[in-house]
Amino acid sequence: MNKRPKIIIKYAKSSDGFIGSSQKQVWLTNQYSKRLTHKWRSEIDGIVVGKNTVLLDNPNLTTRFGFGKSPIRIILGKSILIPNTFFVKNGIVNSIFWETHDIPKLLLDLKSRGLNTIMIEGGASIISEFLLQNLWDEARVFTVEKKIGNGIKAPKIDRNPINTHKILSDKLEIFKP
Ligand SMILES: NC(=O)c1ccc[n+]([C@@H]2O[C@H](COP(=O)([O-])OP(=O)(O)OC[C@H]3O[C@@H](n4cnc5c(N)ncnc54)[C@H](OP(=O)(O)O)[C@@H]3O)[C@@H](O)[C@H]2O)c1
Description:
The chain has 177 residues and is an alpha/beta fold. The chain has one domain: Dihydrofolate Reductase, subunit A. It contains four helices and ten strands. The protein has helices at 31-42, 51-57, 103-112, 124-132; strands spanning 6-13, 18-20, 46-50, 72-76, 95-98, 117-122, 138-143, 152-153, 163-167, 170-175. The strands form two sheets. It has an eight-stranded mixed β-sheet with strand order 5-4-3-6-1-7-10-9, sandwiched between helices. Bound molecules: NADP nicotinamide-adenine-dinucleotide phosphate.
């Protein structure tokens, strides 16, 4: 039996290679790609994000476009002071707050709680850490036509995709380790 959950990395990047801005939330993907992301969320047990993403984007991290169950939200970072008004505190689904940077330990803990598949949704630091430690089974990367100009660089996956799809103007590439 696998000791860790299956790990899917998912992110969107601008055509000039940024995942986001350090000052404000930037929407990248089109509505069809967003719906696909929500469908993927209904197929997994947990979503992992870093604290900067929560504080900057205040993401909902649910399947609110109508695709069944929402996964548990797992937020990584030390001394996380997230206002009670933020979506991750709304109690619609549980949120787990994880303070240490020890990813292998986190994965064992999630597996022991019955989480068999998780999706890592950002931001750049968290995704880069999973890639660096080679703790991933699949990556789903959207590239959009929009340019951001400056901001936080998107992680790089140094291999060719096994599949490429077009979702209107968005490109979706699937990578395997
Ligand atoms: N385009 C997309 O798909 C997408 C998705 C999500 C976010 N974003 C964007 O990404 C940006 C935020 O990314 P970010 O890189 O600044 O922040 P982040 O990855 O969201 O959070 C980073 C923080 O997580 C904590 N952390 C916990 N465990 C860690 C570990 N093992 N390794 C590294 N850090 C760990 C660290 O804080 P402590 O040291 O305090 O613990 C670190 O500062 C925003 O612009 C957001 O909009 C884009």
